[in-house]
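Encode chain A's predicted structure.
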Amino acid sequence: MKVVVAGAGRLGTKIAQVLVAAHHQVTLLDSDEERIAGLRGRVAAELITGDACEPTALEHAGARTADLVVVATGQDDTNLVVGMLTKRHFSVPRVAARVNDDENAWLFDRHWGVDIALPAASPLVSLIEEATGATDTVALLRLSKAGVDVIETAITDRSRTVGRALSDIPLPAGTIVATVVRGGQPTVPTPELLLRPGDEVLLVSHEASEREIHAAFQ
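Encoded structure for chain A:
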């Protein structure tokens, strides 16, 4: 699947990493040149500088052939404009947009080109809190049709699983390791892979909660 993510903040970057790890073709678009430059070598997506509110920038990012556009900026008006542009001008099949202010949630529907609204109260947005270092395990997204959650846990110097092989870590029922992101690059999660500080473990689970994943790794 070809995906364009508009907004390379903490949230948009994490979404891009998850989609890359799932072997999708991902382009990350942001108007901040310094932000994009800082992601080079850390995120295995195509990185493009440009204003997502401009049709030329969206076209350059591949919106015309995208299967999904995720709009994840911190401004609701921007997210609505980009959502409408991608749906009406580029006929993107599916558009997901982040809702920053709950009072604006009623606008995020198909009249504005949005197929999937991502409320600020959803687990996805808790990734913003991760930037403070206060959270090491967060739910990235829920795939409702498949009935599974994608959960990330960050390995630190204090994690009890540092130096342990994946095969030695008892996982909750219905849970598998999808990938280990190391140095910004997804790594094949072989049973003998030893975890290091700085690793980000992405798991897919039918049953486990964030608390259970935290207990297994931290």
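The helical segments are 10-21, 33-39, 55-61, 76-89, 127-130, 210-217.
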